[in-house]
Write a structure and sequence with these properties.
- This protein is mostly beta strands and about 200 residues long.
- It has one domain: Porin.
- The protein is about 10% helix and about 60% strand.
- It contains one helix and twelve strands.
- The protein has an eight-stranded antiparallel β-barrel with strand order 1-4-5-6-8-9-10-12. Strands 3-2-11 form a three-stranded antiparallel β-sheet, with no helix packed on it.
- The longest helix is centred in the N-terminal third of the chain and has 19 residues.
- The relative contact order is 0.23.
- About 5% of the residues have low confidence.
Length: about 200
Amino acid sequence: MLRHITSGLLFVISLSIVIAIPSETSAFDHRLYEGGFGVKGGFLYVSTMHLRERSTGVDSDYRTKAGLSGGLFFDIPLHRKTMLGIDIELFDIQVQSDREKLMNFGLNIKHTVAAYSHIRMAVRPGVGLGYGYLAQIGFIEQANFMIVKAFTEVLFVSDPKIIWVVEASVVMAPYGRTNDYEITTNPFLMFRGGARF
């Protein structure tokens, strides 16, 4: 589990560093510092869900299939380069032949580390925590999760009213439970695009 977490976080951190190296951090478009709301949609890659039966201690693993992800987000300025993000997200989870939506209510901190004024682009990594709820899926009854996310957003300011957003994320649930099971997941890779207004 630790190896998977480390690999996922290194991926997101490396992506931020590689994109940000040749930046011009002094030339930010003022639109990047304003709050706003937006939408994102994209693709959630496969992962593994770990179940431990609480009464017996028996462990079992289930491979999840790739699915879609989407949601709303709200950016609230905290500082010139830092935003508080509020997310309302849906993750499409399929275990064996059963499919259900996991809903996540999350808070995150995003910090702009670089901007390219000549192409009106900025790079903004962040980390977040959330509360996840999964309705019954197969034999697994309703479950509650703690959701952890690390991500990098690339923003393109192409219009006075719209900022286009491309996101690469690592998402996982290090803790979850039902009445009968304790549940965790390996990291999911997620790639999404959207717009902030």
